[in-house]
């Protein structure tokens, strides 16, 4: 990070310290940001710090100084962990048993996705107040393009982002980390450099030298498997990729070679694209114990179908394709789908379609995860027309509407179907997508 003759930004009091100042004269904070390209960069990546855990600590101050893991049951995986737990070796997507071995004193809470979604929408609305060019990546992170917004906000993007981070912390009670650069790739890399409460900048002038020393896994799309392939070819750092020709990389790695060539040199022309329509709605759960029997899987499938249906109805959308997901005890995933004649948003129809597919998969295999969802989303106006073949479908739809009304008035647990009654422990979905 270079220092030039332009004033910096104090990320606590938002004053403008002079060049070279390491501690803010106005408030004494050491969180002073200087960079020679600070006033000219406009592509940002914003990532909420330990999002689920941060919300739970905000809502329960007794958890503030304790290691906290958000995840589902002993057989589930870690959704996220606070930074205290991470210091003890806990990582996202780690099996819960391993996480508790690494940090046995941790407090474990099941995810409250509805609460997290509400907070995520609050943060998203604050982003959209800065620029319409917001591209969400998940519930807690997004790219922003603030090009051309300086006149609107009366400040360059760096100051606008510093104000945003301070406002989120004050008004919502969680923290964010900001990465600022000239392209999406480096903005995302920057946001990971100084967590939590970070604000990191990578400019054009330093991109090549900065990237040269980074591992190849820094590049988007290079996971453990592909990194092992590169390592077998003697390539472990981005600097080694920078010394290779485009043709050689493409000959070895096909279209991925083109990405390696461009991103290793800090070349990323992807634009920040506002959020498009959702492609699917689904819900899944990981069991505390592996399940093989159909009679034990059916109530879970019904509960998941009801959860998906509720979300479709709330959003006033429907889906034409029902997708079933199963994960076996050895972590092998089975995905099955079936296209319907007309779009649906009814739990009954989603469940019956999923059940028909599930029956074909029950063969003695023990499953650790079950999920159901719908894809090919569309407006709900044409959903679920009368079925001339299944004459009882209309009565089931009317019954489902009555159940929905009761649940809206008295809560979701007010009415249960025979499929889920007395089986609520196994039937509660743990995660939505």
Could you name the key traits of this structure?
disordered C terminus, Alpha-Beta Plaits, metal-binding, single chain, DNA-binding, magnesium, 37% helix, transferase, globular, alpha+beta, 16 helices, 4 domains, DNA polymerase, domain 1
Question: Radius of gyration, rounded?
Answer: 25 Å
CATH 2nd-level architecture of the largest domain: 2-Layer Sandwich
Residue stretches low in confidence (pLDDT < 50, at least 5 long) are 424-433
> How large a portion of the residues is in β-strands, by DSSP E?
15-25%
- Number of DSSP-assigned strands: 15
- Computed structural class: alpha+beta
Strand order of the largest sheet: 7-8-3-9-10
Shape: globular
**What characterizes the major β-sheet?**
5 strands, mixed
Q: What's the CATH H-level superfamily name of the largest domain?
A: Reverse transcriptase/Diguanylate cyclase domain
N-C termini distance? 38 Å
Query: Average pLDDT across residues?
Result: 88
Catalytic activity: DNA(n) + a 2'-deoxyribonucleoside 5'-triphosphate = DNA(n+1) + diphosphate
Cofactor: Mg(2+)
Subunit structure: Monomer.
Protein name: DNA polymerase IV
